[in-house]
Design brief:
Order of helices and strands of chain B: HEEHHHHHHHHHHH
Oligomer: heterodimer
Number of helices of chain B: 12
Strand content of chain A: 5-15%
Largest interface: A-B, 39 and 33 residues
Structural class of chain B: mainly alpha
Shape of chain A: globular
Distance between the termini of chain A: 83 Å
Number of helices of chain A: 19
Structural class of chain A: alpha/beta
Helix content of chain A: 40-55%
Strand content of chain B: under 5%
Largest sheet of chain A: 8 strands, mixed
Shape of chain B: globular
Strand order of the largest sheet of chain B: 1-2
Chain lengths: ~450, ~290
Amino acid sequence: MNKSFKATCAGLALSALMAGGALANPYEEYAGTTLIVNFPAHPHYNAAIKVLPEFTKQTGIEVEVDQLPYLKMRERQTLELAQEEGEYDLISYVVFSKADYVFADQLENLAKYFMNPKLADPNYDAGDLIDGYVENIGVAGGFKGYLPGPTGSLFGIPFGSETSVLAYRKDIFEKHDIPAPETYDQLLDAACKIPEVEPGMGGMASRAASGHQASHAFLLHLAPLGGRVFDDQWNPIINNDAGVQAANALKTIVDCGPEGAMSFGPAEAANAFANGDAAMFLDSIAFMPGFENPERSKVVGKVGYAMHPKGVRRGSQTGGFGIAIPKNAENKEAAFLLMQWLTSKEGDLMVAMQGGNPSRFSTYQNAELNEKYPFSATFGEALKYADPDWRPIIPVWGKINADIGTTMSKVLTEDLDIQDALNGVAERTQAVMEEAGYYTWK
Amino acid sequence: MFLAPAAIIMAIALLYPLGYMVWGSFRDWNPSQTIGEAEFVGLRNYIFLWNDPNFRESLGVTLKFAFFVVTLEMVIGVGLALLLDRNIRGMSVLRTLFILPMMIAPVVVGLMWRYMYHPTLGTFNQFLDSVGLPRVDWLGDHALMSVIIADIWQWTPFIFILTLAALQSLPRSALEAARIDGATPWQQIWHIKLPLMMPVLIVTCLLRLIDAFKVLEVILVMTEGGPGLSTEILALRISRTATEFRELGVAAAMSNYLLMLLMLLTLAMFAYTRIQEMRAARLRAQIEEEG
């Protein structure tokens, strides 16, 4: 064997090793790709945007973010996903869009990506993702079409998922010897007692603005009070006793709430609490980090965090956002790598440390996070009761949701009789379901 | 003949989208289908809307909104133009400042007014607090009035700027002659300026009316159509029907109802404009003859 042959062999071996090395890096093939992602203007995504430069540093994949208000995001996506070739490689979607997009065959089924050894990270640990969030945000086609089951598949990964907890003013509750509400009775008592003992302060700040916000606020109370929108045969049961109780609870809360409560969206309600205008705030965990931020809150250090109060059962909300790859995306594999990176243990913790909402059990157990955000422990506990069926996620939900929201807003502002109003919703919902074909097989 | 290609392109560019919308309104069409895939349902979407109380309520809100904003904007805009139609020091700066609101993006206008109407932190309630008056639930009990005020703030300058241009193009000799003849400022306005400007005023009014029927972003940001449906104008309902309810066919039918309504109003106003133009022409001829 002469020297030149040995040198050639050594060169080939080195090339092979380098090639092997290159293949060992799953990102290299996609380095230089620019992904266009559609994110909402939301605290979780503001946190996520802060960690994207780290993704680019690690992978060489550039990310451009088109950030829109979350209700406008849906409008844009409706137009974009219908195109033959879409602009977005990765989208964030509000949970109630899941059914619409899957039904319209606009999202990639994620199985083929998680089955691809070149793309799927063996350390991803999908079992660590919070089950309720995966069921609520990611799965479609199973029981009822929006819950896991033998016919279900995964279309999205939770990212910015939320559950509900109660934030309350520890100082005010201690001052007046009012117990931190553990039940709905205590919650409603406290909501109307606070304005009496603290003039100028509302009991609880809640969403109530017409449409989606009022519907969300009503449904927030419906599940713990034992209600559902439909029974198992898709018959509307929103107008039963539990429905009336939930509407009454919302009306009591708004009537005893801070000034202008009837037109509050979630941001206004959170601002009212952060500004000291209300003693309680029962809503998504996404808003809680803001209460501990001295630049945005006047109640830093005065807030206690408790579980969503119990009615006849515990049933905190599940909701928020997931991320998915559109069927018409240009860079699907690179988009999957970004999706996987953001929701990995490392990514989830990085985003959470910036104020985002964790999607993994392990993140909630992280000591560093718990030190930075003391409420994290309560959130982790609340997740045990997160109810993936607190609202139906079916293709016709948009219409039913709007009707519930408008009707609830009228209950709050025009003093409609609650039973009559809910009967009307049930009747109209039945018509919508009938037209959509839900009773065809009877 | 030379103009034919341009005319054909223009006709296609204008008529194709319109035809697409009309065709879509006869179909059970959702965003996951091409228009060709959607089932043809004839007049079903139109009949559904005719019987839909929410659509009727939105139509009522739209008519109320359009009537109040256009009337008030015309009165204030024309009044200000008459007031500022003179050569005094600093007037050009004032005029420039006055038209600033209409240069601001509607979403920003909506956000700005939403915060000014905030129940506790907003400018208006803080002012009411400072003078000892009770606070007002601007976006609750008085939501429609509040969005009307925001629209007036933004779009009165549009009326002002067109009216001022029309005023400044009036024959100065006629106004001078009237002044020499002893006509009071009010008589000059009522008998000379307004009649001469009337064709311009009608077109201005029509443009604002069309715009008022289509306003969307400001209301979406300020009230999201609530409380209840009290500020849900048709444009907002159309947008919701298309995106939230995913019923493109129904949204297209609703758009066509709006289009028909605006066409009727436009035809009526053009007919009125024609009458006013003839009157203005007669008046001009009379002034020139007397001059």
